[in-house]
């Protein structure tokens, strides 16, 4: 249960819902309830922005107060965030940048991305008092119940946000296990949470942080220059065989992190917030039958089904567009597909398919 919601507040609302359910549609209830309070809703998870602060030269942290429908999350997880922009709901996935708080509030840190409609809106236009839509939390790269052994977090760019949430959680527990954070950015002004990370390092002798710059020379004792490779990891971490490693960042960074340390580490887990390079290019087209609409389209091989279907004019639900949130999943009743990141072929006739990270390699029948 959300720590900000007491049982005494749940019971009267549940009785009210039971009384009025036969009399009013949820959409009608939401319309009138929002006139009384912006986050009152029949069943939608909504959150009001209650604070915002600059996190770096191009990122902002938004503090959100969710309504009673928000089911909570664990440090390291992501959630879908939606805002109405020019009357259209735009949704994308963001990592929580703070561990769960006792007051029920949550935080996301948003970097303004070139061409990113929602990120630009949240960074430059969203203000305290605005209401956002929230999806359920997802993601498996979280801390175990008992944290032991030595840990290494590898972060690049916005990949710091889920790892920062876990770092804050460990700091709140007194840093029960040794942890090193290596955090890459192009320039110093693009780094987030620098003062807080340094403060955590000052309080906890078994926590170390190093800031790695790829387009500036190091200036401070906890800075270095260079991209991720085995030599850099050896210089800052030493032996990886005792380390549990979490890596998060752009797809290319995650690939390099895996190649540089996964084989040597005690355990390795990673999440990419942009797709890694495709492992296989294919040419030609295939015929795809959209079973529910009865429409047949020709789609190119080697391109994500989501992108290819959107180019045919279909408006499909989507979120992270990197295979994590499951928003774009649909049923496949026949045909063969290839995972764009791993190259794995899936020929099972009846299965669930994530459109954003799979391409067609044969004629398909999709439940669309």
TrEMBL record:
The membrane-spanning stretches of this chain are none
- Taking every annotated instance into account, which residue ranges of this chain make up the domain 2Fe-2S ferredoxin-type? 284-368
Q: Which PROSITE patterns match?
A: 2FE2S_FER_2, FAD_FR
| Domain of life assignment | Bacteria
- FAD-binding FR-type domain segment(s): 42-144
**Which SUPFAM superfamilies does the record cross-reference, listed alphabetically?**
2Fe-2S ferredoxin-like, Ferredoxin reductase-like, C-terminal NADP-linked domain, Riboflavin synthase domain-like
Q: Which Pfam families match?
A: FAD_binding_6 (PF00970), Fer2 (PF00111), NAD_binding_1 (PF00175)
PANTHER family, sorted: NADH OXIDOREDUCTASE HCR, OXIDOREDUCTASE-RELATED
Give the protein's recorded name.
Ferredoxin reductase
